[in-house]
C-alpha cells in the first residue's frame, strides 16, 4: 500500500491514500453499511448458500435490485442507477411539480412547504481534500 506506483495511480484517479489497518471497521463505514444491508436483506437465505454459483447468482440479483429498484434516502429517494445516469434531476423535478400540484388542490392538508426535491449534490465515498489530491499528483 505504500509503493510509489500505487500512490501515482491513485493520484491519477483523484484518490487519496488510505493507510487503514486490517480488521478496523471504522475506516470505511460505507463498505460496512453495505455489508449490513446485504446481511439483513429479507431475501438473504436463512440456511446459507448451497454453492459458490448460488452466492454469485444471489449477489448479482441483489446488486441489480439495490442499484435499479431501491430508493435511497441519501440521494433524495432515487435509485443509484438513475442518479449515475443523470436521470435524477428529471425525476425530482416531476416529484416537485406533483407535490406542488397537490398542495394547490388541497392546501388545508399542508401545514408547511413541500419536501425539498432538489438533487442531493455531490456524493462521494471517503472524500479527500483537494489539497491532498494535488499533493499526491505533485509527488508522482
Automatic annotation (TrEMBL):
A molecular-function term among this protein's GO annotations: nucleic acid binding
UniProt domain Integrase catalytic: residue ranges: 14-80
One of the GO biological process terms: DNA integration
Species, as recorded: Aliidiomarina taiwanensis
Name of the protein this chain belongs to: Integrase catalytic domain-containing protein
A Pfam match: rve_3
Ranges of Basic and acidic residues composition bias in the record: 107-119
InterPro entries from the UniProt entry: Integrase_cat-core, RNaseH-like_sf, RNaseH_sf
Annotated spans, Disordered: 102-123
